[in-house]
Write a structure and sequence with these properties.
It is built from 5 helices and 10 strands; from the N terminus they run H-H-H-E-E-H-E-E-E-E-E-E-H-E-E. It has 200 residues and is α+β, with helices and mostly antiparallel strands. Strand 5 and strand 6 form a beta hairpin. The two termini are 32 Å apart. It is found in: Cytoplasm. GO terms for molecular function: Rho GDP-dissociation inhibitor activity.
Length: 200
């Protein structure tokens, strides 16, 4: 990826906010044990006093799926990408997903936190058409710990409205999606394509 493309993924900064140093699950578990509100926050992340931390092997986060959700989708139709299936990702670049023009939809991802706490994590996507950036979305995921039962988390992002008109319908749009934290650590990075149509 060129330096210019990397600039597209520069996260917005919050004035005065400085990310704290990463901590292990054990460090979080013992942190301010007498603080009741902090104990509730830690419990929401699956950090329980005395619980064994998962082994720190492999990626910290595995992004499993990306889905486009809309109340206008016909019954039974799903726009779902398995991000672990390289063949499906390659196929969607050749045969882009069709999004109905002028409708509200939102992006939904599912992901697993494999070990350690993640915080300041955001989903970003840059949409280009004919190599020119036409849209950028940046949404916070929040903070998560490994799910006690190893289950995946689901995050729905804010609704967007798809463009409409004959010009919008001509050609396809290339999307680069990324899950990244405040320290710049990239947890997932993938590409996909869509086109706009009169129907889903």
């Amino acid at each position: 990826m060129s330096g210019h493309e990397e600039d597209d993924f520069a996260p917005s900064a919050t004035p005065g906010y400085k990310p704290s140093a990463a901590k292990t699950v054990d460090e979080y578990a013992s942190l301010d044990a007498e603080d009741e509100s902090l104990a509730r926050w830690k419990a929401s992340l699956g950090i329980l006093p005395g619980a064994a931390a998962p082994a720190a092997a492999g990626p910290r986060v595995t992004v499993l799926t990306l889905e486009l959700v809309s109340p206008t989708l016909p019954a039974g139709k799903k726009l779902h990408l398995d991000l672990q299936d390289k063949n499906q990702l390659d196929a969607v670049k050749q045969n882009p997903i069709t999004i109905k023009e002028g409708v509200e939809y939102n992006v939904r991802i599912t992901f697993k936190v494999n070990h350690s706490i993640i915080s300041g994590v955001r989903y970003m996507q840059v949409v280009k058409r004919a190599g020119i950036k036409v849209d950028k979305m940046e949404q916070m995921l929040g903070s998560y710990g490994p799910h006690p039962k190893g289950e995946a988390y689901t995050k729905n992002f804010d609704p967007e409205e798809s463009p409409s008109g004959m010009l919008a319908r001509s050609g396809s749009y290339n999307v680069r999606s990324r899950v990244v934290d405040d320290d710049g650590e990239v947890y997932a990075d993938w590409e996909w394509c869509f086109k706009l149509g009169k129907e889903w």
